[in-house]
Amino acid sequence: MKKVLVVDLPGVGLRLTEERLVMASRGRREEVPISDLEEVRISPRVSLSSDVLISLMEKGVLVTLVDEKGDPRGIVVVPTFGGTVRTRREQLLSYYDKRGLKLAKSFVEAATLFRTWVLRKLSISRPEKSEKLLSLKEDVESVVPSIRALDGSNVDEVRGELMALEGTASSKYFEALSLVISGEFFSGTRTRRPPRDPLNAAISYGNSLIYTETLKCIIFSGLDPFAGFLHVDRPGRFSLALDLAEEFIVYASHWPVITLFSKRMIGREDFRGSPETGVYLNYEGREKVFRAVSSTLTRHVSYRGKKWRLRDLMLLRARNVVTFVRGESDYEVLVPWE
Q1: Which domains are seen in the chain, by residue range?
Q2: What pLDDT is stored for residue 211 in this prediction?
Q3: Nearest C-alpha neighbor of 222 from the set 88, 76, 38, 73
Q4: pTM of the full predicted structure?
């Protein structure tokens, strides 16, 4: 199985030696056969030449450029990637009719259902807190009928209501997490830009890994990554990648991160900063979250009567968006598989 290589240590230089990618820094050297690579993910302050980029492209290796938080800032792909003109035309047109509304509602409903899945799992493993956890699970679940009932001629007409419902479900979900994650690591609410505690820092980094995965799937499917439905347009924002990520971040990011904290596999030594200036993962902490999320992405789950590697299911869902906007299929809400 080909792998994703993350190069995020400042000062590393990348070069090629025959059919191998060489990483060198301060007397350290590591080589990886290019044939083993699916993607190379490059953080700031890593140096490489255009020759390296061209060689990786020619061999079908995706190159993703991410910022210090792990959020994707660009992708280098071969020119053969990309969709038909019709797909992108239909994607843009669907924003203005009920197709865009259905997609936006589906993304939010899936995220909500997976939140209830997490709370159910936590209630089983923590019987002493199960009553409160199940009560909050029901609060989250109660939002689903309201999501389904929203109607309009396009997503713009109901986006405010839809985002409010999503916010309500998210608030109850994170309230429930405060029952199982120590106050040393979690302040009880979701915080971003900057995250104010270790759990939020780890979740933000995990989410960025899923965001990068869905961005790849969208590009491979021929969709325009900037033209989303749930997330509004903003310069430099891959809105559709954020949309599709809603279906996967709870299972593929939150759950492995929660597991790391629950099993004490991650601790204060894996973070830097303060609540006032922002709390962030250090290099060792990023490695732990990356391994946990990557392991989840290779897990096989049941979908439509078949077993799918989660990373492959992401691509399938992106292709479902394509066939839906083209009028060739319906788009069903993704529901928990366990």
Answers
A1: 3-76 (3.100.10.20), 85-325 (1.20.120.920)
A2: 93
A3: 88
A4: 0.84
